[in-house]
Design goal:
Helix content of chain A: 25-40%
CATH architecture of chain A: Orthogonal Bundle
Bound molecules: zinc ion
Oligomer: homodimer
CATH topology of chain A: Arc Repressor Mutant, subunit A
Largest interface: A-B, 37 and 37 residues
Strand content of chain A: 15-25%
CATH class of chain A: Mainly Alpha
Number of domains of chain A: 1
CATH superfamily of chain A: Winged helix-like DNA-binding domain superfamily/Winged helix DNA-binding domain
Mean pLDDT of chain A: 92
Largest sheet of chain A: 3 strands, mixed
Shape of chain A: globular
Number of strands of chain A: 5
DNA sequence: TTGTATATGTTATAACATAACATTATACCA
DNA sequence: TGGTATAATGTTATGTTATAACATATACAA
């Protein structure tokens, strides 16, 4: 028998180039529906469409990119609609916003109530992944407390080179 | 004799409400001039003016705020001029940009080549201060390395309540 | 001084985000 | 079921942040 469960993607691995991303998307949408049901919030059409577009890849996507994809079939959706959908998704912990990119990415740990918002962002393939490191959070909490500061929210965004992309020589 | 030097502001203390801020500014400008001399870059009029405006307080300031202050006397400076000055100041390590605020703040550790860019930002008084914690940096480096990631640059911005401002009850 | 690199001026536009108010859909109770 | 409140979306306009492109001016060294 197996000594550990074998999910299609290890939560702690940086997304691999050729992985079955359809399963990431399906998984996220399923969990999103569950979260909304539990919280009695409504995952309406446009909200789901935006969530699906965010999950098109692991590369953070801008609000206006989402907008143009929505309108690529001749639609006339306005920016407000996208921003409102994103606001809903943020409030419900279904997506994150990356301040350093002005872009959004699907949350990889829906329901886990992390809200740590620690990210690794590859400069080459532009993939972003959550780094919700407990030791890092502890060090951060400790360092902040030493300054007499009380944390309300944190942003940790680390830019560099992912395991699948080499730094330029 | 004193067992420790007594700078007018402890580098590790969060800026106090009533401190002698003129000295912060004078200090920063002096060091900025020294850095530019050493690096053979030119601290021109507009660059110095922008740096002075950034140092008006410990509250991060937006590019267009700087612009309107520059133009408050009837000037006609364009946004480009401000952004170019800010770009120069960033490149020379004289100011930092806070991604979570789209705003700029004077570097409190000019010359120390930290480039860590770890900040504490008070939600009440809006003051921002550099954290630059070595243990935090170590934890971060470690956590990132465990994921097979190579750091190029980091953003750490912590929002909360400074030692001089109470959290809302 | 004269060429070259650096800096600034100028105009326009791109990119990101929200305000304000009208309309439509949904939930939920009488 | 119908009425009413709430939530969601539509629509128009505007605010805010940042950069592109090209012209002119200034500094500085050969
Ligand atoms: Zn995937
Ligand atoms: Zn990569
Ligand atoms: Zn000060
Ligand atoms: Zn404060």
């Amino acid at each position: 028998m197996a000594t550990r469960t074998h999910k299609h993607t290890d939560t702690h691995a940086f997304p691999k180039p050729g992985h079955n991303h359809d399963r990431c998307t399906a998984d996220a949408l399923k969990k999103a529906a569950a979260v909304c049901a539990q919280r009695k919030t409504r995952l309406t059409d446009i909200r789901r469409e935006v969530l699906e577009l965010v999950w098109k890849s692991h590369v953070p996507v801008g609000a206006y990119d989402i907008l143009s994809q929505l309108n690529s079939g001749g639609g006339r959706t306005a920016p407000m609609a996208v921003y409102r959908a994103l606001e809903f998704l943020l409030e419900n912990g279904l997506v994150h916003r990356l301040a350093s990119l002005n872009a959004f990415i699907g949350c990889a740990h829906i329901g886990k109530d992390h809200h740590a918002a620690q990210f690794l962002i590859c400069r080459v393939c532009e993939t972003a992944a959550e780094l919700d490191s407990a030791p890092l959070t502890r060090a951060l909490t400790q360092a902040v407390a030493e300054r007499g500061f009380t944390i309300d929210s944190q942003i940790v965004e680390i830019s560099g080179f992912c395991p699948h992309c080499s730094p330029p020589t």
